[in-house]
Amino acid sequence: MLPPILANLRLPVMASPMFIVSGPELVIAQCKAGIIGSFPALNAREKAGEPAMLEQWLTRISEELDRHNQAHPDQPAAPFAVNQIVHRSNARLERDIEICHRHKVPIWITSLGARPEVNAAAHDCGGIALHDVINNTFARKAIDKGADGLIAVAAGAGGHAGQQSPFALVQEIRSWFDGPLLLSGAIATGRAILAAQVMGADMAYIGSPFIATAEANAQPDYKQMIIESGAEDIVNSSLFTGVHGNYLAPSIRNAGLDPAALASADPTSMDFGAAKAWSKIWGSGQGIGAVNEIQPAAALIDRLADEYAQARRAVFPG
After folding, report:
1. Burial 76-100 (b: 16+ CB within 10 A, else e)
2. From 234, 238, 260, 279, which residue has the greatest number of CB atoms within 10 Å?
């Protein structure tokens, strides 16, 4: 059974936190339209001598969603989530945890390491903790360290994607875990959301289609490339950040590289830090063939909701 905070949504969907792309505007639009919006804490960039940007973002999101709920008590906004990169290299982690705890963030997403103290902080302020994993071994470690649920990042997902088929990954996790399970990987239609549930996941975890929305913090050329590309335009490589990820081949070519020759490229000859790489080489999942226009996030969610309802009627008539 899903915890109450993940139940009774308009759609069983959480929008994934995308580096640079996800910010307050997109999260607020997603939540108002009935799905869980999320953003990486590190997207709230710091400026010397100014108040913590993360503090400002959380205040804005909470206040705008509260106003929406007061004005629309019959259609309340979905809750929001914040993604914490819990790797030891994140120098901001301790401070960001304190801010999220003080603001009582309802859903915490953890990545790149499972940390019991982060899960404890989420629980202490009344939240839940979900950890993203790319295989069954990492899934077991996350639950052992106190995560409430899992996000299975399968092959085809955007950004730092896993390598395993969603069928295999969900099957192995569900053989021992009956708690909250979300699935990520090329989910871009309402039919795919239903398929994730039939496969054994509770919810879908969707990112790349939201790059091509009005509220996304993405360059216009990035949004246009999303709607002009399909699965065959996605290239998997560890060259740019040291971790395997899925990227748009046209953006790789625009950076002066040959997508077909990445395996033999010399990473030491390239000036790519993680942030700089993502500003030039654009990530995307394989599901973008279903994205045909740049539109408000609410319109995209309307489409997903209509498709999901149609798929349910087709698969479960009567």
Report:
1. ebbbbbbbbbbeeebebbeebbebb
2. 234
What digits encode the pLDDT tens for the residues 5-59? Answer: 999 999 999 999 999 999 999 999 999 999 999 999 999 997 766 668 999 999 9
**Where along the chain do its domains lie?**
4-217+297-315, 220-280
CA angle (254, 44, 48) in 5-degree steps:
105
| CATH of segment(s) 4-217+297-315 | 3.20.20.70
Angle at 165 between CA 128 and CA 140, to 5 degrees: 40
Strand partners, 128: 107
In this structure, which amino acid lies at residue 146? G
Asked if 155 and 185 touch (Cβ cutoff 8 Å), the reply is: yes
Measured in whole angstroms, how far is the alpha carbon of residue 105 from the centre of its chain? 16
